[in-house]
Amino acid sequence: MKPGAKDYGAITATINKGIKGLCETDTEDTVSKFTAMAKTALADGALDGKTKRLIALAIGAAKQCDGCIGFHTKALKHMGATDAEVSEALGMVIYMGGGPGLMYAAEAWTAWQALQDD
């Protein structure tokens, strides 16, 4: 990992720990329903799951959500997404978000490159 780069593996591990903790509280039902919604939203339909994940990554970058970038980058890697697919999705973030979009598109690309081996 490059100096100063975010550790998206650690970010997602920390979030997973927090989610596990929330599941041990009265919030468990809310988390469970969110997880079910995510599973439904990401299922193949008119758009395949990989396309939906590319959209989710782009939205995560546009909303400057490090956890979203980490989780969707990992999933896309496991789904066999290519550099070209990820970079084009991030190009839409730059187009729609201007300068702030470029900053987080660069963050998402860094995560994509850093998590290549995960």
What would your notes on this structure say?
It is a single chain. This protein has helices at residues 8-22, 28-42, 49-62, 66-78, 83-114. The protein has one domain (8-114): AhpD-like (Up-down Bundle). The radius of gyration is 15 Å and the shape is globular. By secondary structure, it is an all-alpha fold. α3 (49-62) packs antiparallel against α4, α3 (49-62) crosses α5 and α4 packs across α5 (83-114).
Summed up, what is this model?
With 118 residues, the protein is mainly α. The protein has helices spanning 8-22, 28-42, 49-62, 66-78, 83-114.
Strand content: under 5%
Name the overall outline: globular
CATH topology: AhpD-like
CATH homologous superfamily identity: AhpD-like
**How many helices?**
5
- Name the average pLDDT: 92
Terminal-residue CA separation: 13 Å
Question: Could you give the order of the helices and strands?
Answer: HHHHH
- The total tally of domains equals 1
Biggest sheet statistics = none
- The helix/strand class is mainly alpha
Which regions contain 5 or more consecutive residues with pLDDT less than 50?
none
> What is the β-strand count?
0
Give the CATH class.
Mainly Alpha
Q: Taking Cα atoms only, what radius of gyration do you get, to the nearest Å?
A: 15 Å
| Fraction in helix | over 70%
Do you know the CATH architecture?
Up-down Bundle
